[in-house]
Amino acid sequence: MAKRDFGHGAVMPLVLSLSLPTCLSQAVNVLYAIVDRMFIGNIQGYGDLALAGVGVAVPITSLISSFAVLVGMGGSPLMAIREGHGEHDEAERILSTGFVMLLFFSLLLTPLCFILKSPLLRLFGSSEATFAYADEYLSWYLAGTPFALLSTGMNSFVINQGMSRRAMASVVCGAVLNVALDPVFIFGFGLGVKGAAIATVISQLASALITMHALLSGGAMIRLRLRLPGVRIVIRTLSLGLSPFIIIATDSIIMILLNTVLQRYGGEGMGDMLVSASTIIQSYHLLVMNPLGGITGGSQGLLSYSYGAGNTDRVRRTWACIQTLATIYTCIMLILSWTASPLFISLFTRDEELARLTLTYLRIFELMIIPLSFQYTTVDTFTALGKSSIALPLSLLRKLMFTLALFLIPYLTQSGGTAFFAEPVSDLLAAVVSTLTLAVMLRRVLGQREAGLDI
Asked: What pTM, to 2 d.p., does this model score?
């Protein structure tokens, strides 16, 4: 069924059927991150400080989740390529190896993060006033690390089999459950920050169970059957997944650096307020970027399958459709950034000064999201084609640009708020470089496939 769908039919309807459910599921998935922060920010008496504390803990939780991306985005395109090439048994081995890798990372990361969490939180921008909230949230979140990794990592294998609706159901169920449980645990049971983390862990467990059921059921074209992991598959998965892993991991590191810079240049009077503003801005940025990643990543299975089958013209048409959707989406989100962002901010805080500060810097932060869509599409396209040697440098370049701007601009201006200009500067420059790279390298890569030199 998936083979017939991927190999034939009009490209745009296929892209829509794959990308839109994934985009929606990513939009819903953002609720995991932002609903906690909404309720926490509205806790009577200490909401703003608790919000800043959670803002320091969130980059660490995102860094943990990046290991799910490493396996999921690395292994699932390989699975789709091999299925497209007619190697069903190899595709099943790749799926099984991905599952075992996620279990391994869960066992490794959980105790390691428990040991290091206190020094990391202090190093990454937690003040004396916010440390207790950050520590409490992170401690309870870490208990659900296996569920977080399995729900996110294995979902990529569901998507790249063409079961985007099943993948969306997993995410939607978890997010809706999180929304329902947050007020119960935070306010009803009076658990505060701890309650938000517990609700998230329960919701991730539900998502993981639904995802695993999809891969074990008879409806899956490539079913999960446990086999001994192949060393070659592990190496190839890590190699291909390194680019999206670095995107997520360095996003987390950048958030950490941003919080540190804001504390340093904001000073004792403004540091915590700027970190609170950053937490709200990062929540909105997730609402923009995660669905964009769903659009560019949701059709990776189609790109991978077409490339594996040697249908390079279909690869080109798929890329064009994905870029069109990504451009339309980011245009809409830019408009909303200027019109609807005050309403979004009001969900997190009742403090007028914090709301005003956040609105100013949020609009600056989102200025170049339209050019950024070209960078996202380029990186995900080369990842789908198995070309991490191209995708990875493009990912690193944008992060390097952001880091340089993050340290240079506040240093020159001696103002913490100007750190938010680092995002649009790096977005624009990275988009230019990525587009030029695509124009040159995509033709070369597809030409090699047409000549039968690369598979």
From this structure: 0.75
